[in-house]
Amino acid sequence: MKTLKNHKGFTLIELVFVILLLGILSAVAIPSLDHSAITATLSAHTVQTDVKYIQELAMTRNQSITMEFVAGATNYTVTDDPGGVYAAETR
């Protein structure tokens, strides 16, 4: 019987270890990604609700109300005609 002198490849133990390691890493990484998605969804819903409220308020008062968003910021400013300024945090 011939024996191979040059063995190339991985053993079953090495493959099982790598699969186990990938499973552990993905179990740790996936919840943090899910948390970011939930936070983004909640922030978007908050802004959407605020926009609807401000539209209704402007129509009820029959006056202009301005929302100002700054790129990269986590908040926005709402200004009405008489000079009232309000800030809201989007998280």
Structure commentary:
This protein has 91 residues and is α+β, with helices and mostly antiparallel strands. It has one domain (19-89). Helices cover 55% and strands 18% of the residues. It is built from one helix and three strands. It is rod-shaped.
Give a short overview.
55% of the residues lie in helices and 18% in strands. With 91 residues, the chain is of the alpha+beta class.
Low-confidence stretches: none
The string of secondary-structure elements, in order, is HEEE
Q: Overall mean pLDDT score?
A: 82
- What is the β-strand count? 3
How would you summarize the topology of this molecule?
Elements: H1 12-61, E1 65-69, E2 75-80, E3 85-89
Antiparallel strand pairs: 1-2, 2-3
Features:
91 residues; single chain; 3 strands; alpha+beta; rod-shaped
